[in-house]
Structures are given as C-alpha cells and as structure tokens.
Target: ATP-dependent DNA helicase RecG
Amino acid sequence: MTDLASLNIKYLPGVGPKRAELLNKELEIFTYLDLLHYYPYKYIDRSKTYKINEIDGSMPYIQLRGKIVSYTTHGEGARRRLTALFSDGSGVIELVWFKGIRYITDRYKPGTEYTLFGKPTLFNGKFNIAHPELDPIDDRIDNTTGLQGYYTTTEKMKNAFLNSKAIQKMVYTLLSGIQNPLPETLPLPIISRMQLMSSTDALRNIHFPVTIGHLRRAEFRLKFEELFYLQLHILRYTRLRNLKLGGFRFDHIGNYFNDFYHQVLPFELTQAQKRVIKEIRADMGSGRQMNRLLQGDVGSGKTLVALMSMLIAVDNGYQACLMAPTEILATQHYEGLKKMVEPLGLRIELLTGSVSKKRRAPILEGLLTGEINLLIGTHALLEDSVNFANLGFVVIDEQHRFGVEQRARLWRKNKIPPHILVMTATPIPRTLAMTVYGDLDVSVIDQLPPGRKPIQTLLQYDNKRAQLYASLRKQLQIGRQAYIVYPLIQESEKSDLKNLEEGYEHIREIFPEYQVCMVHGKMKAAEKETEMQKFVSGEARIMVATTVIEVGVNVPNASVMIIENAERFGLAQLHQLRGRVGRGAEQSYCILMTSYKINQDTQKRLEIMAETNDGFRIAEADMQMRGPGDMEGTQQSGIAFNLQIANLAKDAQILQVARDEAGKLLDSDELLERPENQIVRKELNRIFEKQKNWGLIS
Model:
C-alpha cells in the first residue's frame, strides 16, 4: 500500500469531499494515517445481547436484537420528536429521537431485524432509549470480543451524521484494505528489548481489540511510541543546542560572592539552597550556556539563590538582570536585594514602565558603560533601548507569566547568549517538567528556611461565617493584615465581579474601623497599583481581590487569607494563593470557604489542600484530577504538542522508560545518521515538521 501519510482522507471509500472537509476542520484528520492515529477514548463491552424483559435500572448500556414495530411523531418545530416501538418477542421498548427524524425513518424500516445499542432510562414508569445505535444484523463490524471503541466527535459532525459509529466504519474500511504489515516506526532493537507489539497489530487492536489483553498491549506500544518521539525531540535539540551554543565560562568565585556569603548573609542557607547553588555553579563553569528551571515553593529562598548566582556573574566581570511579571513584584525584589548588595558596593537599579524619562536616561547610560552591575525590572527590560555592556546572567521570575518570544528577546541582549535561570513557585509535577520544560535542567528547593511556621489551612462552610469574622478581627487587633479572595472566571465574569463588589461592601460594613482596598484584573493598571500599594504600605488592613494577587505581592505582615468559593479553584491555584501568607515569622492561616453542596471530588481536592503544604504533592494531585492541560500556570506556558493517547498524569512510568530509551539512542548516534536509525529520523520529521523548534528557546 502507498504511504498512508500521503493519501488524502477524501479518497477513502465512504468519506468523499464533504465529510473530508469536516474531518479536516473539526479533528485535523487530513490523511489515512491521521485517521489511524485518531484513537477511541473509551471501550464498551458489546459481547452480551439482552432481552427486553431483562432490562432493569442498573444497566448503563445494553444491546438488544429485534424489529421496529411502528413510528409516531409528536409535537411541532423545534419540539418535534420521533418515537418507535421496538420488539424482540419478550417485550416492547420505546425508542426516542429529537433530531435527524427524516434520516431515521428513511434508513430504518419496520419489520427489518436490527441490533440496537443504547442507554435505557426510566420515564413515567417505563424504560425508553434515546438516540440508540441501530445496525442491520448483517452489517455489524466483525469484532468477536464485543469491545467497541467510541470516538470523540463534535456537534457539527453529529449534525452531519458523522458520529462515533461513522468514524468506526471508516477505520474498519481503512484497516480492511491493508493486506501487508505497515512499515515499522520504531527501531527493531527497541521493539525487541521492550517486547512491544508490532505497529500494525497495535493499530488494529487499538481500534478493534481481539481481547482485553491485546488492547492493553496496543495501548502500551502506542503510548510508549508517542512519548519516545516527544522525549527524543526534546533531548535531541537540547544536545544540539549544547553543542552549538557555547556560553560564558564563569569559573571564578570572587570577593562579591565570598563577602556576601561570609559577612552579609545573616543566616545559614538550607541544604537545598546549597545543593542548587552548586548545580548552578557547575553549569556556569562548564563553558556551555545554562538554561535551568528553579522550582521552589513560596518562601523557600529562590530569590536568594538567584542573587548569589548573579554575584558569580559580577565576580567574572559581567552584568546580571532579574525580570519579574509585575511592577510591584519587581519593586519588592529591588528593595530587598538593594539592602543585601549595598554593603558590597555594587550598583543596582530598577527599570519599570513607570520610571520617568529623566530617571531612565542615567540608568540606560550606566548599563552601557557597565557601571550598573545588577538591573531589576519588568517587561521594560525587553525594550530595544535597553542595552548592556556585557550581560552574562538573566533571571526570569514566575516564568509562566512570560511568553517564549519575550524570553528569547533577553537572549539577544548579548552576542553570546547569557546564562538563564527561570524560577517558578508553581510546583510542576516531574512528568510535566520533563516534558514542558524538557529542554531545561531542573533544580528543586524542597526545604523551607528554619523558623518559618507552616501555614494552617482550614476548610470552612458558609454557615460558620460569624466565627470566621470573630477570628479575623482578633488577627487585625494584634496588627495583622488579611486577604479575601474571590473567583473571577471568564464564563461568569459579570456575576463574579458583582460578588466581588458586594463582598467588598460587606467587609467594609463588618469591619468599619479598618481600611479595606479592592483589586481585580479589570481595573486600569495605575488604579490597581495604587490599591495594592495601600496594602503593601499597611494603610489598608484588608485586601479584597481576585487571583491577580497570586503572583506579585509580598506582605510579611499578612497572616490570614480567606478564599471564597474555594471549590471553583484548581489545587495548584489555591496553593499559589495560599503562598501570599506565611511570609513572616508569625503563624498564618488560610481559610477555604465553600458551601455544603459540593461533590465528592471537590471535597477530596479541598481536603488535600488542608492536609499538606507540600506544593509538589498538591501539583501531582491536581494533575491526576484535572489533567495536564488544565493545570494553572502550565496552560500559559503552552504545551507545544498534542498527545493522542498518552496521559502525562497517568503514564509517568512509561514516560520515564521512553526518555531512557531516547537517551540511549542519542548516546550511540547523536545525529541519527546510522542506517538503522533512518526510520527514527523520518518519523521524527513527520511528527514535528509542523511545529516550531521550541527546544532552542529557553
């Protein structure tokens, strides 16, 4: 058979131009191979045929065999529906259709025997089945196990009668036309070592499993292959980049670093901080450009690690900069770092959008002459007018807030790309980090500095509001501050803003003796900045806000966070919000407010939050429950690939094995030039030809 990747789907019998156009637009299926790689999302056992008189309320789906006795239509226009009586000799059941009525009556004739499949529902004391699948007895796809795959389709496709059954028939037609085995897509040594099913058998069994065992082996083969090529792509570009891109060699540890460490630093570093600094030092002294992701929970001391790494750059005669996502966060970084580096005699400056022209000119000049050693700023650092004498080290804080192109612009601030350290307080599960950030080396700070008290997290129901306000008042009376956070979700933006504003007025009535400020993402930047500043300065004691505060405010005096409608937030986002308190030495509290009417999954999610402060455990749980695409903070970073069958939340072990195998292959043939690896090279190009070379971007 011709190469399946080059055959247009419209030429497959039963497809044609109109259906092909829908498949192109709705599912991105353009070729025969695309269709083979469009896998079922679930399987239902159709091995048993029931009798109508056996039906009871506990059956999710049933298969019957019988005849349509008669049709009746009811209602007019949009309310029109079609009912049919279906009999198998043991009894009669009603079938109902709310659309496609003419298609049904033209296609399925009374008196003809059909196999019926559907979900029985009890209505007015009788069972009926809405929109059942009907097949003439001799027209059933031969599948001895009775395991039937179901395919995701869209509303537009269903309206054109291109449903799961229609896709199954197309796949059946395609596979029936394949007489010889398809070319292998993995090297034979890997297939043999991993005892994998052949590519042809895996594709046949994923669509039409011979047994459950065959289905599991097919799933393993296809998941492994998908993750193997993804990891190979990432590792290959990382290695090529390391070969091509030399970096500054910072092998000198001088006075700035040593004086800071021995004389200025007021406390001992944690073991985790020491380990990470060692990893960064090794990278900076290797002669290759560093691209490292630093993960650590809020308050774990990432900024201190970043500063000490920047001092190594200064010791070697280079400048360093730190870019933060908001003006407030940049200012806080600047003020904190300025106190630390001033005893060393270093010049540190702040550059944000609101820095006046008069103040900006000497900063730009100082960068060009090299007099400024450290620059802290926001997106303003990316402007073309900002140029350095010798930029050697870049720190990007809250990395998921910056687009890839923005980060790449910092690369271009020097002829040789500077070393890059990207930091995030959103803990990323290992499987996701290996994939989304697969081209970055990962360091983790998994300890909090001594003296930090773990935040107490409590789950509270609406009816305990009076006690909650009494506890909050006690905290305010001893001089503390508090956040009250409301959800602001796009789909319900108007009602959410209304709730926020009503909440703000309510809190002002309950606590008339304290100033309350309000912040949300729909406010103008200057207005938002003013309100935030009131809270940072301590003028306002309570801040009512949306999630805009999850990144960008550091107020050690804030010891209480109340999160309204906590059930509407993801775990990772709740954890990120909680990190706004617990920044001082005092005991801090995070209260998750919810109504009694929450389902079991939501209850479980909120209980995980109350049980642990471990961001990595929370991130793993969030990914298990919600899937990788929904995780707060990873959506913005843009997962640059579509997984057809593997699941990063559930297939961590397969991912690790696939990465190991990809690494072994590259160890033996880095450029994939050997004859036996040509199939790998060809398959790699086919899979990633449409995608950007994101492995070369930090």
User: Anything to note?
Assistant: The two ends are 42 Å apart (CA to CA). Residues 630-640, 692-698 have pLDDT under 50 and may be disordered. The longest strand covers residues 62-74.
